[in-house]
Structure to design on (80 residues):
């Protein structure tokens, strides 16, 4: 199963919006989404602090700030 990682933080409204928007796309493609708190990992915070939310697949950044639905849909179609 494909697993996407959403690097997020609790008090971030953009993070909440991306998580909600991602639900439909994840269901459409049958992918899992793991939400990771950027503030709980010093390495993630150093790398993504100002970019959250960040959507990753196996370390590859798919988008940040807002869900780029068409880009992520195209990517998921390619890797399936």
């Amino acid at each position: 199963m494909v697993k996407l990682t959403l690097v997020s933080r609790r008090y971030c409204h953009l993070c909440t919006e991306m998580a909600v928007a991602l639900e439909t796309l994840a269901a459409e493609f049958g992918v899992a989404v793991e939400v990771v708190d950027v503030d709980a990992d010093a390495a993630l915070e150093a790398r993504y602090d100002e970019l959250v939310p960040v959507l990753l697949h196996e370390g590859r950044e798919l988008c940040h700030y807002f869900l780029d639905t068409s880009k992520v849909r195209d990517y998921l179609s390619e890797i399936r």
In short: The first helix runs from residue 13 to 29. The beta strands are 3-8, 32-37, 54-57, 60-64.
